[in-house]
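Table S2 (text version). Query chain:
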Amino acid sequence: MTSFTTLAEMIAQQVPDAVAMTAPSAGPLTYGGLHQLITRTADTLNRLGIGRGDRVAIVLPNCPEMACAFVAVASACTAAPLNTAYRADEFEFYLSDLNAKALIVAHGSTSPALAVASKLGILALELHALPERGAGNFSLSAIR
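Corresponding structure-token output:
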């Protein structure tokens, strides 16, 4: 069976400049760029001690970065998208039930998921959109 990571790498090698993602607010993200994003995200998560078998909750609005974050995170570990409209008690239930090792939120987020993650000892990561690198492109950094 071919994984998405392997498929993305194959497409990136065959047609690296083909468009993988578009959005009105950014230039196109190519398959080459998507493959680089997947690799960079996996490397970042691995450096933070997150890998296969670990669960990462993603609390982002519907946007190109959410789509790319889901694909990139799922290529490195288990991605669990959660509804941005959840209340603190709902985040506590789902983050506990998932046994999440990390939580990803947008830069500047005030989501109640952050307070819950702190309470549960879950690593919080901030997603920084990089539209100049193409629609959906991003970087991650730990929230201190």
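Notes on Table S2: The domain at 4-142 is CATH 3.40.50.980 (Rossmann fold). The CA atoms of residues 29 and 134 lie 4 Å apart.
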